[in-house]
Design goal:
It is a single chain. The chain has about 425 residues and is an alpha/beta fold. Among the domains are: about 55-200, 3-Layer(aba) Sandwich (Rossmann fold), CATH 3.40.50.10860; about 205-355, NAD(P)-binding Rossmann-like Domain (Rossmann fold), CATH 3.40.50. Helix content is about 45%, strand content about 15%. The strands form two sheets. It has a seven-stranded mixed beta sheet with strand order 9-8-7-6-10-11-12, with helices on both faces. The protein has a five-stranded mixed beta sheet with strand order 1-2-4-3-5. A hairpin with a 5-residue loop joins strand 1 (about 55-65) and strand 2 (about 70-80). Helix 2 (about 25-40) crosses helix 15, helix 7 (about 205-220) packs across helix 14 and helix 13 (about 365-375) packs across helix 14 (about 385-410).
Length: about 425
């Protein structure tokens, strides 16, 4: 019978399936884990329905004349999922594939994430389906200001506070703050992730990547993995991936492979991630990088011999067609929803220890909380204080989740969702929402 495929046998994946994104959406991934947690917590169906649904979903049209002389109309979204634990909080992403389902999923993820690390926020997310990497600075500014004009009525320093996400940065936050300020007066606490010159927080730019590193170290202690000369592969080299790479390299790890949308590069001796970051920020590609390293196919990248694999790109990058390629000891999720439920099961079967997104990449929102507090108090912390408090909160959250996982004999992901959902349900009950 072996070698004779049947309707019930999985068809061998081709290279495109192995190296592409999963067909499972972010919304399906987040919903799957929420449903599992709700069942384990024995939530009543009506309570689970309230917890799963969004409080408010806003969709706006953003017509902007671009450099080609034509008016292009983009769609902008802001979803406020749950505010039982505090003001809505979540990033703004610019990407052609942004749609309401994705933003809805990421808003829910923020609700559970802020609860897991126990900062006093709810969950929200926003985005515009524009090709940010192909746009001029002036075009990005026009889109940003128009978007803020259209959603400002549902935002506010004590209502909903945006932050950077995919293809947005401190400059985009500066435009948003300025546009909001034209209508409401000086309001630095309206967004986080701002430039230092505009009351941003020291340590915020590196926060998500630094938080990932704290999770790498915590997980390594748990699985008895030495990080001295530990080999790391990183998928995605934007803000999260590049900061995680540089900090890990400074701490003695060897970053042996990096993948971006342009391809992948590997070196058994370790890549010069500082030079690679500089090259990347100056507009260079992996193809024209002159440092040590050989080009690799996406499939070869996934099968790189390493101890730690950090997905820090987009959702659905690890799925049932490629999860078996990973040879690492552990996966620490710098991206949101990078691993599908099917892939999660495969990794568990292969004894790969997974630190899930809802805790692994929470460093950004933790330091956003610090920035928000500093803005409200008009008192700035130094970077050492920010980094110290970040480490304290991340390690405390990991301890809470890992102890629950051990006591209930479940994965960190299941335990994390249980902790997050439980805390939001408690706040909702105390407010009388359910």
């Amino acid at each position: 019978m072996s070698g004779t495929p049947t309707d019930k046998s999985p068809r061998p994946a081709n290279e495109a399936e192995r190296t592409g994104r999963a067909e499972v959406s972010n919304y399906e991934i987040v919903s799957h884990w929420f449903d599992l947690a709700a069942g384990r917590l024995e939530l009543a169906d009506d309570v689970a329905a309230v917890m799963k649904s969004s409080y408010r979903e806003v969709q706006v049209q953003i017509p902007v004349k671009l450099s080609d002389g034509k008016i292009h109309t983009f769609s902008g979204f802001r979803v406020q999922h749950n505010g039982a634990r505090g003001p809505y909080k979540g990033g703004i992403r610019y990407h052609p594939e942004v749609d309401l389902d994705e933003v809805r999923a990421l808003a829910a993820l923020m609700t559970w994430k802020t609860a897991i690390v126990n900062v006093p926020f709810g969950g929200a997310k926003g985005g515009v389906n524009c090709p940010a990497r192909d746009l001029e600075q002036s075009e990005l500014e026009a889109i940003t200001r128009s978007f803020m004009d259209k959603i400002e009525k549902v935002l506010g320093p004590t209502r909903d506070i945006p932050a950077p996400d995919v293809n947005t940065n401190a400059q985009v936050m500066a435009w948003m703050m300025d546009e909001y300020g034209k209508l409401h007066g000086h309001s630095p606490a309206i967004v986080t992730g701002k430039p230092i010159a505009l009351e941003g927080s020291y340590g915020r730019e590196a926060a998500t990547g630094r938080g990932v590193v704290h999770m790498v170290r915590s997980a390594a202690e748990q699985v008895d993995l030495s990080l001295d000369d530990c080999r790391v592969a990183i998928q995605g080299f934007g803000n999260v991936g590049s900061w995680a790479a540089r900090i890990l390299a400074e701490q003695g790890c060897r970053v042996v492979a990096v993948q971006t949308a342009e391809g992948a590069i590997r070196s058994d001796n370790g890549l010069d991630v500082g030079a690679l970051h500089q090259h990347h920020t100056e507009g260079g590609t992996l193809e024209d990088f002159e440092g040590e390293g050989e080009r690799a196919t996406d499939e070869d990248f996934l099968s790189t011999d390493c101890e730690v694999f950090i997905p820090a790109a987009l959702g659905g990058m690890i799925h049932k067609h490629n999860a078996d390629l990973l040879t690492c000891r552990m996966v620490v999720e710098g991206a949101n929803s990078p691993t599908t439920p099917d892939a999660d099961e495969i990794l568990a079967g292969n004894d790969v220890f997974v630190v899930p997104d809802v805790i692994a990449n929470a460093g950004g929102v933790v330091v956003s909380y610090f920035e928000w507090v500093q803005n409200l108090q008009h008192f700035r912390w130094d970077e050492d204080a920010v980094n110290h408090e970040l480490k304290t909160i991340m390690k405390r959250a990991y301890k809470t989740v890992s102890e629950r996982a051990a006591s209930e004999e479940v994965t960190l992901r299941v335990a994390a969702y249980e902790v997050g959902v439980e805390r939001v349900v408690e706040a909702s009950r105390m407010r009388g929402y359910i």
